């Protein structure tokens, strides 16, 4: 890989990372629920871009399709159906947010430490030639070794679907 | 017989048991004397045999070449012996050891206790005296207590007393002496309280016994002290012979001998009626008269004198009799003599007069021992036994005639009705007063001489006492004779002479009172008769001659004609004074009513120096009263208070314990456990808010902490 | 590129998601924070898949996405029910289990 390519990768990564970080923080601190949902979209999109950066395009597309397409819509429906106020509302942050900061900081710190301790010097392998067989590999893997989990997931989806309908039925 | 002397007390002892078991069956309860008299008679015969054999022993040891050879008959033997005796040893005394037979009784810790007999001249003489007086009293009693409610009992204890006294006399060691001493005390108690249904008699018996007990303390302490003395000298024994030997040879320390002698003197004071423990003797007259004659005139009361004579080296060395001019024994004896004689003047009971006379004469004997006149004391003991017993039996006879009264004021003029009694009484009184040539004269004279120039120094104070008492003795005896036998009969009824069983013993005693002096006549008296050998027989046969060799200063006083004359003058003066006062009525009659001092003196004497008041009222009363009350107070208030306090405090403590510890601490702890659980539950419940985010926070927080712990720390 | 970049980013997202779960009062927003967490995990998986050149990481990420979708559906159905019963989706009001 050429130096230019490497630099470009790094730059893109950092830009995307900043976007994600800002979006995430805003999501958990905003007082507007709808805004929070949109910020979530931002995070998801940034992540999809990251996946492409990692040469996992199938997963990236799936992310966009499912997460941003379906899940976000679901969330918006949920917000609407639960009569969330359009606009700001006061006090969406709970009273115990300092403890939450502490706990999350601790957790984050631990994970970061562990990560740095173990993988601090590992580099991602550099690919010289770019072969677009990611999707094929994934499908080979799904319908090969991971066939059973695939079927199970489909059943799970079915169960979730049926369950959600049953739960939300108005009668 | 000397080796079998134990038979002498054994026979009366057996008779005692026999009378107890069989006496009531003989003649319907009035025949016990059929056992008692033969027993004592055989005892008397054996005593004579002992005496006989002892004399023989002394003669044999004297190195006489003349043996009773060819004495085929008893009479020849007697004659031969008498020949030897009369031509006797003039060259001096020879030592003859006592005959000692012992049986081992038991041993403890290296100390041997033995039982045995010690026969020497002194024991032999006393055996004879005791058995003779006892025999005559037995015969007299068979008439005197005839028809009595406790006839059998009386004779039983008379036998026991005889046995005890004989046992005492033959005692080989001091332990046996104590046994005999106590036994005669018990018999005295029983016999004095013979008619115990009347309280005064029972009281008198108790008084005698308890007063003797006080002296017995001295006896026991003295015996123990002497034992330790022998222990110091390495001998470790109670044997009298050994004690005497050690005391005489100086192997026992003087201090021990002194202490022992003083303790034994206390015993003598109580048993032999010395001042101040004499108070029991007059009251002991509550018993039957033969008992008084036997016990309180002739035998038991001389036990003390005998004891001193027996252990004489202890006293001689301990009290330094040989070298001093006054000592405890002599002074006590002399003072007793004087005091007893004074009291004899103021009593109206004939037996009490005789009792005080006995006290006075015992004082004489003790004084004699105190001044070193050992032989004189024993001699006087023998003669006194005879004539005092005679006087007592005479008094009994008189009372028999005067309807059982002993009060002089209800008698009088009995001379006409009872000649036997009168003459025997008179003879015995003269002997008591010490008139030549009766027995009392010789013995009293020897005592006076002993006081005059006995040892290194004479005992002048004792001599003065002796002479004054001689005068008083004669006077009070003739007062009694006057009131009893002269004048007109003041009682009621007609008096009569006593039966033969009573008068015969009286004559025996009178006879003995006349002739008993023969046994120790001084040599100058017999020289004209060529019978010098007879002189001083008691000395020869009885004196502890062994010790003479060791007593540097023991001397026997030479008889003094001057002293004899002086003694007789005193006696005659006493008789004369009595004659003048009573028969002629001269002198300051009624002085006591006119003169305050005289009245007080009389009052003092009449109340027996207020000694009884002192003993009963002051000493006993104070113990009974204030001291007993104080002890009771102490018991109730102090001891009971302590006990009650313990109880109260225990209860209070228990209550406190219950309230504070049990209820307070323990229950609170238990309750606290429960409350703690409740509180902690209530506290922990606050966590269960029901809010998911809180649970989530806790969950994630815990996970974070764990993660930190596992990742970073470990 | 260092793999640790991706991992750190994932860790950051995870921490933010945890904060959101613990500190948001609206139940829907809590669900959204859970989605953040799941996405952080996805990123992790993919980074490791690329590091180790194993395709199963990506496969698994797909599964995670599927499951996350299902979960959101069911979760929102539940929140709807709660809203119907309580007319509020404030989690502070859901304290019937208090005690």
What would you note in describing this structure?
The complex is a heterotrimer of chains A (171), B (714) and C (99). Chain A has two domains: 3-95, Up-down Bundle (Four Helix Bundle (Hemerythrin (Met), subunit A)), CATH 1.20.120; 132-171. Chain A has six helices and no strands. Chain A has helices spanning 3-29, 33-53, 57-81, 97-119, 134-142, 147-168. Chain A starts with a helix and ends with a helix. The model of chain A has no long low-confidence stretch (mean pLDDT 86). Chain B has 714 residues and is an all-alpha fold. A two-stranded antiparallel sheet of chain B has the order 1-2. In chain B, helix 4 (121-144) packs parallel to helix 16, helix 9 (254-271) packs across helix 13 and helix 18 (439-453) packs across helix 24. Chain B is elongated, with a radius of gyration of 39 Å. The relative contact order of chain C is 0.13. The termini of chain C are far apart. Chain C is mostly helical. Chains in contact: A-B, A-C, B-C. At the A-C interface, helix 1, helix 2, helix 3, helix 4 and helix 5 of A face helix 1, helix 2 and helix 3 of C.
Rounded to an integer, what's the Rg of chain C over CA atoms? Answer: 17 Å
Task: List the uncertain runs of chain C.
Answer: none
Radius of gyration of chain A: 20 Å
Distance from N terminus to C terminus of chain A (CA atoms, Å) equals 62 Å
What's the count of strands of chain A? 0
Mean pLDDT across every amino acid position of chain C: 89
* Tally of structural domains of chain A: 2
CATH secondary-structure class of the largest domain in chain A: Mainly Alpha
Secondary-structure-derived class of chain A: mainly alpha
What are the SSEs and their pairings?
The complex is a heterotrimer of chains A (171), B (714) and C (99).
Chain A: H1 3-29, H2 33-53, H3 57-81, H4 97-119, H5 134-142, H6 147-168
Helix pairs in contact in A: 1-2, 2-3
Chain B: H1 7-22, H2 33-61, H3 74-86, E1 99-108, E2 111-119, H4 121-144, H5 151-169, H6 174-192, H7 199-232, H8 240-248, H9 254-271, H10 280-283, H11 289-298, H12 302-310, H13 312-318, H14 328-344, H15 350-371, H16 374-401, H17 419-433, H18 439-453, H19 460-485, H20 500-515, H21 523-526, H22 537-542, H23 545-550, H24 561-583, H25 591-594, H26 596-606, H27 611-685, H28 692-713
Helix pairs in contact in B: 1-2, 1-5, 2-4, 2-5, 4-5, 4-11, 4-16, 4-20, 5-6, 6-7, 7-9, 8-13, 9-12, 9-13, 11-16, 12-15, 12-16, 14-15, 14-19, 15-16, 15-18, 15-19, 16-17, 16-18, 16-20, 17-19, 17-20, 18-19, 18-24, 19-24
Chain C: H1 3-23, H2 27-52, H3 56-86
Helix pairs in contact in C: 1-2, 2-3
């Amino acid at each position: 890989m050429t130096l230019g390519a490497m630099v470009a990768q790094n730059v893109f990564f950092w830009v995307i990372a900043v976007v994600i970080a800002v979006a995430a923080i805003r999501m958990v601190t905003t007082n507007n629920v709808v805004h929070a949902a949109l910020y979530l979209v931002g995070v998801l999109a940034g992540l999809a871009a990251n996946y492409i950066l990692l040469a996992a395009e199938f997963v990236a597309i799936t992310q966009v399709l499912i997460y941003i397409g379906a899940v976000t819509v679901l969330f918006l429906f949920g917000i609407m159906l639960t009569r969330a106020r359009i606009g700001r509302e006061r006090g969406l942050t709970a009273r115990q947010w300092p403890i939450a900061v502490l706990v999350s900081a601790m957790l984050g710190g631990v994970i970061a430490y562990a990560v740095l301790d173990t993988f601090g010097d590992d580099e991602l392998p550099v690919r010289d030639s770019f072969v677009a067989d990611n999707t094929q590999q994934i499908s080979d893997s799904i319908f090969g070794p991971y066939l059973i989990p695939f079927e199970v997931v489909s059943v799970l989806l079915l169960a979730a679907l049926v369950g959600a309908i049953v739960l939300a039925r108005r009668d | 017989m000397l080796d079998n002397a134990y038979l002498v007390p054994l026979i009366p002892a057996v008779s005692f048991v026999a009378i107890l078991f069989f006496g009531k069956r003989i003649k319907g309860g009035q025949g016990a004397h059929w056992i008692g008299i033969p027993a004592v008679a055989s005892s008397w015969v054996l005593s004579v045999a002992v005496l006989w054999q002892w004399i023989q022993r002394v003669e044999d040891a004297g190195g006489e070449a003349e043996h009773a050879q060819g004495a085929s008959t008893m009479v020849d033997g007697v004659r031969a012996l008498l020949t030897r005796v009369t031509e006797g040893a003039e060259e001096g005394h020879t030592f003859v050891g006592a005959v000692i037979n012992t049986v081992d009784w038991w041993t403890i810790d290296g100390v041997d206790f033995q039982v045995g007999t010690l026969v020497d001249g002194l024991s032999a003489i006393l055996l004879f005296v005791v058995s003779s007086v006892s025999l005559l009293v037995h015969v007299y009693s068979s008439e005197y207590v005839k028809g009595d409610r406790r006839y059998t009992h009386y004779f039983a204890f008379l036998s026991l007393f005889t046995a005890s006294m004989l046992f005492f006399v033959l005692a080989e060691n001091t332990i046996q002496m104590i046994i005999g001493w106590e036994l005669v005390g018990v018999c005295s108690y029983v016999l004095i309280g013979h008619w115990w249904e009347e309280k005064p008699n029972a009281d008198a018996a108790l008084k005698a016994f308890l007063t003797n007990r006080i002296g017995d303390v001295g006896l026991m302490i003295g015996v123990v002290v002497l034992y330790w003395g022998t222990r110091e000298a390495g001998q470790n024994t109670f044997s009298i012979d050994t004690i005497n030997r050690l005391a005489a040879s100086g192997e026992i320390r003087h201090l021990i001998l002194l202490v022992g002698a003083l303790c034994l003197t206390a015993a003598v004071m109580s048993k032999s009626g010395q001042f101040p423990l004499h108070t029991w003797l007059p009251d002991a007259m509550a018993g039957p008269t033969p008992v008084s004659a036997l016990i309180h005139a002739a035998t038991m009361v001389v036990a003390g004198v005998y004891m001193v004579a027996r252990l004489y080296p202890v006293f001689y060395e301990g009290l330094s009799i040989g070298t001093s001019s006054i000592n405890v024994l002599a002074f006590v004896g002399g003072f007793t003599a004087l005091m007893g004689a004074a009291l004899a003047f103021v009593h109206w009971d004939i037996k009490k007069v005789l009792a005080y006379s006995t006290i006075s004469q015992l004082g004489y004997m003790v004084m004699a021992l105190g001044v070193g006149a050992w032989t004189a004391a024993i001699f006087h003991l023998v003669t006194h036994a005879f004539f005092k017993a005679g006087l007592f039996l005479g008094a009994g006879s008189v009372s028999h005639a005067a309807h059982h009264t002993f009060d002089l004021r209800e008698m009088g003029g009995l001379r006409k009705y009872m000649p036997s009694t009168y003459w025997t009484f008179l003879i015995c009184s003269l002997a008591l007063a010490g008139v030549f040539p009766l027995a009392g004269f010789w013995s009293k004279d020897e005592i006076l001489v002993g006081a005059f120039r006995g040892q290194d120094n004479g005992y002048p104070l004792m001599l003065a006492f002796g002479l004054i008492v001689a005068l008083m003795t004669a006077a009070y005896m003739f007062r009694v004779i006057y009131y009893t036998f002269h004048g007109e009969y003041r009682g009621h009824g007609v008096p009569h002479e006593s039966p033969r069983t009573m008068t015969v013993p009286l004559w025996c005693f009178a006879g003995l009172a006349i002739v008993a002096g023969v046994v120790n006549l001084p040599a100058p008296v017999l020289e004209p008769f060529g019978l010098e050998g007879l002189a001083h027989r008691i000395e020869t046969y009885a004196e502890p001659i062994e010790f003479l060799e060791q007593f540097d200063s023991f001397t026997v006083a030479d008889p003094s004609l001057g002293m004899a004359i002086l003694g007789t003058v005193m006696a005659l003066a006493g008789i004369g004074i009595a004659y003048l006062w009573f028969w002629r009525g001269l002198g300051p009659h009624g002085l006591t009513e006119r003169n305050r001092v005289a009245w007080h003196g009389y009052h003092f004497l009449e109340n027996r120096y207020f000694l009884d008041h002192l003993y009963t009222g002051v000493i006993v009363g104070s113990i009974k009263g204030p001291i007993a009350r104080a002890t009771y107070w102490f018991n109730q208030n102090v001891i009971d208070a302590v006990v009650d306090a313990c109880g109260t405090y225990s209860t209070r403590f228990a209550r406190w314990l219950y309230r504070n510890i049990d209820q307070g601490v323990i229950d609170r702890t238990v309750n606290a456990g429960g409350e703690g659980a409740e509180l902690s539950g209530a506290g922990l419940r606050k966590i269960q808010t029901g809010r998911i985010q809180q649970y989530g926070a806790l969950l994630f927080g815990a996970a974070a902490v764990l993660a930190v712990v596992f990742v970073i720390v470990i | 590129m260092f793999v640790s970049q991706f991992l750190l980013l994932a860790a950051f997202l995870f921490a933010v998601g945890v904060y959101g779960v613990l500190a948001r009062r609206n139940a829907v927003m809590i669900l959204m924070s859970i989605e953040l967490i799941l996405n952080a995990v996805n990123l992790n998986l993919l980074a490791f898949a690329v590091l180790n050149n194993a395709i199963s990481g990506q496969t698994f990420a797909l599964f995670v996405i599927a499951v996350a979708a299902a979960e959101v559906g069911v979760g929102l159905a539940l929140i709807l029910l709660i809203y119907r019963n309580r007319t509020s989706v404030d989690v502070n009001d859901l304290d019937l289990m208090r005690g």
